[in-house]
Amino acid sequence: MSKILVTGGAGYIGSHTCIELLNNGYEVLVLDNLSNSSDESLKRVQTITHKKLEFVNGDIRDRELLDKLFSENTFEAVIHFAGFKAVGESCEIPLDYYDNNVYGTIVLCQAMKAANVKSIVFSSSATVYGDPASLPIMEDFPLSATNPYGRSKLMVEEMMGDLFKSDNDWGIALLRYFNPVGAHPSGQIGEDPNDIPNNLMPFVSQVAIGKLEKLRVFGNDYPTVDGTGVRDYIHVVDLAIGHVRAIERLKSNKGVQIWNLGVGKGYSVLEMVAAFEKASGKDVPYEIVDRRSGDIAACYANPEKALKELNWKAERELEEMVTDAWRWQSQNPNGYAS
Ligand code: NAD
Ligand code: UD1
After folding, report:
1. Choosing from 12, 97, 129, 149, which is the catalytic residue?
2. Which of 31, 90, 130, 144 has CA 20 to 30 A from 136's CA?
3. Quick check: bond before 333 cis, omega within 30?
């Protein structure tokens, strides 16, 4: 049986990906320092799948630990989720972001090279496209970054390109996620932000459940359907399945391969709010405030490359995204601490 090392596997996208890996017959070892998660997610992954995974509480920057894991296990590939992800925070503590996201990935790749494990799937982001000149976004669009978080993703992408140039045995999948939302349909795992959420969906969920008073909609004067920002929201289960497809592709294709993982359709903030209200039966009060600095008007993917090369396509519609997000939120009002 093939074994996959999943860094950051206790987090939001990682835990959903563990389910899909286990359900597809992979063995899984999660390395996570629980800096933004709880191992409760992994307990629930095992309950949902009726399968076991291994968990090591540790840091990707710990080279000794990595060497030990690579010597004790035969990994087919690594899926690398571990990192920090809050844009605003990355502007306040940029060095911590470069340390964790860039240096952490360097240590991981060094350990992989030493162990001759040369297949990696990396969590990149649509943020690397900056403010795109046109839509929908294709993988060969120009790249840019406007904040340390985005720059850390761009740096890792470029570093991995250099790594392949130096050694053609590497198989590297750069997955550029659009806006992951929703939760596993069991309602047992989902997104569990530590603090007041920055992202739209967890914020809306917490307003609906009464933990937050109202949503602040960042601008209604964008050139979009109703003036509010448009994004390509993708169900986290679809996203998770994309990782399994990428692992399968790496079995026979080396090189740096890049895929947009999005639905290919954009929804506005107010459309998301309306869908959420309908699914939850709760009101989501909101006020319109100024634009958030760094935001763009609209962003959505052209996901055709992933369809052609990975045979992957997002299957879950908006209604399923908001229904599943609400099931998770209402069953776990305080996340994993509930
Ligand atoms: P998350 O914070 O829920 O998961 C990240 C996990 O990595 C957490 O469990 C955290 O404890 C762990 N971690 C962080 N630093 C670590 C370290 N040094 N060693 C070991 N473990 C460490 O985030 P997520 O939403 O699941 O995102 C996963 C990845 O996808 C991240 O790299 C993120 O930047 C990227 N991404 C996320 C989104 C999004 O909207 N959620 C969008 C695009 C890209
Ligand atoms: C943000 C990050 C991006 C990151 C992504 C996933 C910024 C500028 N970008 O993307 O780099 O990859 O999260 O983690 O932070 N909105 C509101 N009120 C809110 C929250 C959001 O109106 O309280 C609006 C935003 O203006 C935007 C949409 O909702 O139009 C989605 O916002 P969000 O969920 O934060 O995602 P992005 O900004 O797309």
Report:
1. 149
2. 90
3. no
If you measure from the C-alpha of residue 259 to the centroid of ligand 1, how many angstroms do you get, rounded to a whole number?
19
Q: Flag whether the pTM goes above 0.85.
A: yes
Answer whether the bond into residue 136 is a cis peptide, omega within 30°: yes
Q: What is the pLDDT of residue 194?
A: 85
Nearest Cα residue to atom 33 of ligand 2: 199
Strands (E), the chain: 3-7, 27-32, 54-57, 77-80, 119-125, 171-177, 179-181, 215-218, 230-231, 233-235, 255-261, 267-268, 286-289, 298-299
- CB-CB contact of 102 with 30 (8 Å): no
Q: Is 198 exposed, middle or buried (0-12, 13-18, 19+ CB in 10 A)?
A: middle
As given in the structure block, the two tokens for residue 93 are 């503590």
Distance CA 200, CA 180 (A): 10
Ligand 2: centre distance to CA 156 (Å): 22
Nearest ligand, CA of residue 60? Answer: 1
